[in-house]
Each structure stands twice: as C-alpha cells, then as structure tokens.
Amino acid sequence: MTTTTPEQAKAPLPPNPKTSKRRIRVDLRQYGILAALVVIIVLFQILTEGRLLYPGNVSNLIQQNAYVLILAIGMVMVIIAGHIDLSVGSVVAVVGGVAALSMNDWGLPWWGAVVLALAVGALIGAWQGFWVAFVGIPAFIVTLAGMLIFRGVALVLLSGGTVSGLPRPYIAIGSGTLPTTGTPDLITLGIGAVASIAVIAQQLKSRRDLQRLGLPREQAPSFWFKIGVAVVAIMYLCYLLAYNRGTPIILIILAVLVLAYSFLLTRTVFGRHIYAMGGNLNAAMMSGVKTQWVNFFIFVNMGFLAGLAGVVSTARAGGAVASAGGGYELDAIAAVFIGGASVQGGVGTVIGAVIGGLVMGVLNQGLSILSVDAAWQQIIKGLVLLLAVAFGFSRRKSAR
Question: Which residue windows are coiled coil (predicted)?
Fold first, then answer.
C-alpha cells in the first residue's frame, strides 16, 4: 500500500500531454472564423486592387450591414436556445413603417418615434414568445406565421407607398457620424485608443480570473497574438474612418450592443440558462431553470432588436417601404451559423455572430466592387454558409 505525504498532496498535478494538446486545438478552432474573415479581406483587397479598404468603402460596409449585425446579436441567443426566428425581416418592415408614420402623420418627435418603434418590436416579440413559451408551439411555426402576418401588416400600414421626408436627426442614426476635428479626425483615433486599452484590460482580467480559480488558460503566445491582432484591427479601422467622415453613429451603437450582450450571455444567470436549455433542455428543467420565461424573454429581446434594426434600416434608406426587410432573417441566420453556432443549439457567441455578419458583409462589398452578377453573389454566399456549417459539424465530431 502506498502512502502520500502532505507535501505530495499539496503539489500540483503534472500536466497531461493529451489535455494540453487538446486545449491548444480548441483555441485554434475558436480562431478559425476570424482567420477566415482575414483571408477573405486580403483576397478581395488583392482582387479589387486595394479598393475594398478605401475609407469610404469601409464606412459604407459598417452602415450597410448594421442591420445584419443587430439582428445576428439577437438571433444567436434564439439559436443557442434551440429555436429559430423567421419573422425578423417582416418585423423590420412593420417597425420601420410605424416609426416613419409616427413622425410624418402622428406628430411624434424623432426620439419619440424611436422609443415607439422599440416598444412595438418588443411587443411583437412578446406576442410570438407567448405562443412558443406558454402554448408550446414550435418557434419555426410561430415565426413562419409571424413572417406572413407582419408582412401583411406592413403592406396595410404603408399602402400609400413610400413614407419619406424623415427628420435629419433620425436619418443620422443610420448614416450620420460623430462631430469631427478635421482630417485626420482625432476623436475617431481617440476612440480607437480607448477601445484598444479596454480590450487589453478585459483580456488580462479574464486571464487573471482563470488563474485565480485554477482553471486552464490559453497559451501565452496565442493570448498575446490575439490581443495584438485585435488592437491592430481596431486602430487600423479607426485610422481609415479618421480619413473619411469620422466615426459612424451606428458603429457606436453596435459597440454598445456587442459589449452588453456579450456580458449578458457570459456573465449573467439568464445567459447561463440560455446555454443550459440549448445544451440539454430536460436537464435544465430538472435543474430548476424556468424555461418558459427564459424562452419568452428571448423572443421579447429578439423583437426589441428587430425594432432597432427597423429604425436603423429606415434611417439609412431615408424612408419606409412595405418591402423593407426582405431576406433579412436569412442574412441574420447565416451570420450566426457562419460565426460558429450549432444547429442543435447550446453553442454560439455574440462575437462569433458579429464576425459571421462581417464575413457576409465583406463578401457583398467585394463582389459588388468586382461587379459580380447578383445571381452569382447568391450562389457564393450559399456555398460559404454550407461550408461553414459543414466545418462546424466536422470539428464537433473530432472533439468527441
């Protein structure tokens, strides 16, 4: 019989080579979608002879794809929980119509129209969440019905045609920028510096937390490489914007949303419950998770963000039309799956969804600059989505 001395009991266990190798492999998989985005940017930068990253094109890329990124942030929560939402494009059209009519016909100020639009979006989400959470109808059916219902509502609301002539402050939400100090814009460069410092501080804090809890940490070389890439990307983006028109207002809104929803998903009980439900619904119910209410608020939140996307798209277009939002739900779903979410639920991140949305945006921008036919653009985006999901399936099989 062997005995263990107190000194041996206190000594840390030697590292397991298999565990160490597996941890490195997991880290590399997490960077796969980011590496794909970088490759696509470099490829189109070469093919377009440098035109992709012209300051004006970068600013347009952010503003034109803001609706996809906003919807993807909400959609990733829906998909993590094991659901899908096919109605967000129609909700965008309805909310945009309500916002435009409230300013032109109902006499509301622009900020009152924004508040009303967000409230209408949340109310629509509550309506759909009720059927999913408390009646038990699958989200696919509920939101498919919602796609038809709310598209019809948009047609009724905007039967008179396009509602235009919106106030300038409202339009600035989708296409305006912060005040500038000249060229280059020092405010934009300052925002980039503050954002870089915040990224470094947050990553170091997370690493210290893991160390304090005795949990596995990312290898130091990849950790610092990741931070370096993030800082370079932030500062280069701000450099390009500083030589254009300054910081787009929508970029500030997106940054706030990414920070807030990343915190919600990773640092709150509600976020952990979403992951638990997507991973194993029965186990979550047995653990005391109030699944009905979690599902309900997931759809309320999706409606709220669809309302915000409706405000942004209407402001960007300068008016509201009943056909607005067509295909938005497919763009958002594609962004989430390209960003690494699992079809089965339980897997996904806000950052991944945003990167997936940027992949779609860069593809659209690059192919448009190259004057690729719209039909071929659809084919290419469909193939990218299929390959991304196939890659996700293969890596999860290899991780078992």
Answer: none
